[in-house]
Amino acid sequence: MSNSRHSSRRRFLQGMAAVGAATIIIPSSQRAFGFQNANDRPKFATIGLRNQGWTITSKTIPFADFVALADVDAGILEDNVAKVEKKQGKKPDSYKDYRKVLDRNDIDAVMIATPDHWHTKIAIEAMYAGKDVYCEKPLTLTIAEGKLIEKVVKETGKVFQVGTMQRSECDSRFLQAIAMIRDGRIGKVQKVTCGINGMTGSPEIPVAEVPSGLDWDFWLGPAEKVDYRALPEMRKGYGGGVPLYSNGHYSFRNWHEYSGGKLTDWGAHHVDIACWALGASDSGPSKVTPLEYELACEYKDGNPVVHDRYNVATKFKIQADMPNDVEMIITSEGDNGILFEGTEGRFFVNRGKIVGKPVEDLKEKPLADDAIELVYGGKVPANHSVNFIESMESRKQPVSDVWSHNRMLEVCHLSNIAMRLGRPLNWDADKREVVGDDQANSFLSRESRKGYEIQMG
User: Fold this and answer.
1) Among 282, 286, 387, 266, which residue's Cα sits nearest to residue 328?
2) What's the CATH number of domain 3-167, 3.20.20.140, 3.40.50.720, 2.40.50.140, 3.40.50.80?
3) Is there a contact between 133 and 101 (Cβ–Cβ < 8 Å)?
4) pTM recorded for the entire structure
5) 345-372: per-residue pLDDT in tens?
């Protein structure tokens, strides 16, 4: 990118940072002039456009030009091209095959919001194609994928932001919680409980006709080739327009072939904040124990014995032994959020509230004026996307980097493996492998389907 483009972007981002955590509303007539010269705006593309794909794209349009979109569903692709054109005033190019996006030399960064089993392949190939990457959470399907992404980030020097928006948004409640922990407001932390909700299983889901416009084989990609399954009842609300029960959208998170259930969905948010607060973002657990759990179908040797229904955990209570003798509980019961307990008090935080006596005590003894900024590492930007663009400018890794994300996600992946095998797992956080359990270690990686291997370099 040219020096003039860097300079213009720097002036723009300095203005954005000054806004802090306030919501930015830019009239549509001004969106094309986010920089003094439209040619100075970074060029973006989004790969994977349902739900979260549109969310991150729409949040980023005030700060970047989207010149391309890609999705394997023709209907979703067409719909999002129209929405982006309306929002930014210029029509993006569209592709079914994400590789055509990566082939373009005019694109600075890609935003990835595909199902989880595609994340690693696209992200690595994007970095080797010279793009910075913003990838939705959970970043990986396996622990080995996380290690591989770390290697490529280091090798290419690309900026890589994970889409754990709780680090930058939600009215700074989570940043306040971390600041309180660091300031000793509950003494020494002894226990942290992450409530991430459970889910219901499914009935038997029959083989069904692939929806019109969807390239099912390409959707499966690195995963094993299987039939499309769905029941006719449609999902309502968020994720609507798709079957309530299927092995595709929106329900792909309920299958270990494509995701990790609630453990990696909501766990990627709350376990992340908990690890950040505990100072465990560069380490990990020593042991993960499944205390109570129910799987959505029968398992044998760590694998589901049927393939016509959901197979992730529906209910669970997991204990992770964290550094400094802190007990972490990950549970499907109770309020969604994080409860911190220490020698001198306790408080609870989620996306709607932060409550407890230590919070009430802030009225008489507030945190230091710069406490939130010290946690974040600078002024909190308008949103997570702005942090990514700021990092593209500085060439420093963003607040949600791959290393801290992978370390906390290891807790979630190990929890799933422990439930699948029905036993505790001792974890060597330095070697990043299960101690003395070859079967458990076999679940740390997964082979890609022939023709969909990751193209390295």
Assistant:
1) 286
2) 3.40.50.720
3) no
4) 0.92
5) 999 999 999 999 999 999 999 999 999 9
